[in-house]
Amino acid sequence: MRKTLVLASLLWLAGAAWAGGAELYAQNCASCHGPGGEGVAGVFPPLAGNPRAADAAYVARVVRNGLSGPLTVGDQTFNGSMPPFAQLSDADVEALAGYVAGRLAAAGAAPAPGPGTTAAAAAGDPEAGRAYFLGKRRFARGATPCVACHDAPGTGALGGGTLGPDLSDAGTRFGAGLAQLLERPGFKVMRSLYGDRPLTPEEARDVAAFLASGSGAPAPAARGWRFAGLGALGTLLLFLVLFPFWPRQRESYRDRLLRRKA
Questions:
Q1: Cα pseudo-dihedral 119, 125, 128, 132, rounded to 10
Q2: What percent of the chain has pLDDT over 70?
């Protein structure tokens, strides 16, 4: 009888801790790893059925210190970056790690939306997303327009920036996880730019819809050729404007005086 009471008490305490961990997970982790720990294929690793996540001490270290670089889970490799959650107390970290290890990782692997699935992105407005991408419409929290660093189909003749990768195939590569990735960036540079001014869920869906609408289209022409062509066109126009004045430039001041006297 005493053993039964002790076991029941331990289970009750574990359930209470997991309940607190579930709330912390929903607030801090679910937007990237999914409500059930399913993750997003190619973007965020799954926690459900993940042997690494079954180690509460390992999960606690990752939550405290963050994690970046290649990570293989099953047959998938992820190469994002997770920031440390310095705002969580030690008790919160332990509760969160206990929930992830005891509930999510212990469960069977949940199906994750795979690359090429664009249903979530389709919920947004591609035209509004293009306006956000190009900076023609301001993000509500003042985030930098995407075109400052990235190029994509539909950005016009001059294209976008070169600091970040071309996003012509972003919809195919990230699929349904693209909106989540835009709302909660997992890459260090994006996190530094958008960490204190993230996109709203609606803005993220709109930009994701715009990028998904261009997936499968040929990548924008090489910027070098584009700028070379525009430079050649500008040179030609300048030559046409200056050509009527060119003969006078070759005439000396003496010749002009003689021509006037004549």
A1: -20
A2: 71
Contact between 205 and 179 (Cβ < 8 Å): yes
The predicted-structure confidence for 119-128, as pLDDT tens digits, reads as follows 444 478 999 9
Token pair belonging to 214: 């261009």
Specify whether the backbone of 159 is left (phi greater than 0), alpha (psi in -120 to 50) or beta. left
pLDDT band for position 97 (cuts 50, 70, 90): very high
Q: What angle do CA 18, 56, 77 make, to 5 degrees?
A: 115
- 155-187: burial string, b at 16+ Cβ within 10 Å, e else: beeebbeeebebbbbbbbbbbbbbbbbbbbbbb
Q: How many CA atoms lie within 13 A of 100 on its CB side?
A: 33
CA 92 to chain CA mean position, Å: 27
Alpha-carbon Rg of the chain, whole angstroms?
28
Place of tokens 């969160």: 96
Q: Which one is predicted more confidently, 109 or 127?
A: 127
